[in-house]
Amino acid sequence: MNLSLAADSTETWQTDPLARAARSAVAAGITVVVAAGNFGLGADGKERYGTVSSPGHDPSVITVGSANIKGTAQRSDDSVNFFSSRGPTRGSYVDARGVRRIDNLLKPDLVAPGNKILGARSVDNWTRVLPSLLPATHPQLTKIAGTSSVGGESVMMLSGTSVAAPVVAGTAALLLQANPGLTPPMIKAILQYSAQPIVGANLLQQGAGLLNVSGAVQLAQALRTDVASAVEAGKITAGANLLAPGKTMPAASTTVNGQTFNWSRIVFAGGSHLLSGSALFTKYQPIYDHRLTWVRDIARRRTVTYWPAASGIPGNTYPKSIVEAAAGNQWLVTSGVMSANSLLGSSSWLGKTGAFMPTQTLSTWLASGSGVVISEGVVISEGVVISEGVVISEGVVISEGVVISEGVVISEGVVISESGQPSPTNPNDASLLGEP
């Protein structure tokens, strides 16, 4: 499911209606890909963090930012578009003590080409000849050299995270074609782990990096093809072998157009945790259960019930209800997985540390063997999350991962829409017409 939209929301992912709907779709086994939003620039023309919109602020969806490929086949000159929304997420809620809490989830998850992308131009639904609203309003988008119109249909060039998200959605479809047994969280992990970090861009600008279709498919083909059905049936255990018979982990690098680059080796988990290591894919990690949502000390499970068979429609086809409750006792992450949290330090925009660390820097450290191997795993016990034997409860989070301070270049601006039109947080047409 591709959602090229972004709505203003100050609500936490836990209660936001769009986030809850998207999370329900994931719980039903649908991989949901969402545009991060086009609000990376403020009215003053300066970069704004904390502008990821709804439902891209939900932890279960794959949130996609926009990359500028500069019109070249080489990947070394790619950059993150200035208009692409930056993390962290800024939804909030009031806890039992009356204190306002900010979600501050790491987002976006990755970036994909979303600058001056050429595609089909549709006609309006009424006349079937006249252009639809967007090209009618901005005719310059359709003035592409060497193209012509047939029956009112032609091509147009568009920019924005709305056109970057479908690139990732298409890749997700390719992954499911290569391995139909992948769960939505596995697809997200594969896309992040195999992504290519863009030099100079940090974790809140690009997530794990630039989409790497070839590497993602290669990794998907190395994994078992029965995981999704085994998860649904409760027949797979934490730490179970995840590799397909005769398969091994592929080398963490990809060659495209004669250029070889390393994978990021980064996977976001728990809202503010960065995981790495081959154990993420050689062992089954319970966070790959698409019905489970984990953010810091919150672990929730969605239970999906289906209508029985009727009138020629097989059972387990249409969801009847989806109910969310606290997750029961279980593992979240097994031993052997590497934690990269300790490599980041406190978040500082000036110091380029924490959430503002360049993804390439962290990736290079991970490739050299840095990081801490989790020896005891992460588990849920009696309704709270236990990490390395330390209980997280009563609002006090131990080993919370990446902590983002409340006063660092965070925008509380208002998102009007994902259309690319001028707004308080998007004062120009860069997100519509593209950047140089």
Secondary-structure blueprint of this entry?
Elements: E1 2-3, H1 17-27, E2 33-35, E3 62-68, E4 79-80, E5 92-94, E6 100-102, E7 110-113, E8 117-121, H2 133-137, E9 154-158, H3 161-178, H4 184-193, H5 203-206, H6 213-221, H7 227-233, E10 253-256, E11 259-262, E12 267-269, E13 273-276, H8 279-282, E14 292-295, E15 298-306, E16 319-326, E17 330-333, E18 338-339, H9 341-344, H10 359-367, E19 372-373, E20 378-381, E21 384-387, E22 390-391, H11 430-433
Parallel strand pairs: 1-2, 2-3, 3-7
Antiparallel strand pairs: 3-4, 5-6, 8-9, 10-11, 12-13, 13-18, 14-15, 15-16, 17-20, 18-19, 20-21, 21-22
Helix pairs in contact: 3-6, 4-6
Please describe what this structure looks like:
The protein has 436 residues and is α+β, with helices and mostly antiparallel strands. The protein folds into two domains: 2-116 and 159-433, no CATH class; 118-158, no CATH class. It has eleven helices and 22 strands. The strands form seven sheets. Strands 1, 2, 3, 4 and 7 form a five-stranded mixed beta sheet that branches. A four-stranded antiparallel beta sheet has the order 12-13-18-19. The protein has a four-stranded antiparallel beta sheet with strand order 17-20-21-22, with no helix packed on it. The longest helix has 18 residues, at 161-178. The protein is globular, with a radius of gyration of 21 Å. Mean pLDDT is 87; it is low at 387-400, 405-409 and 411-419.
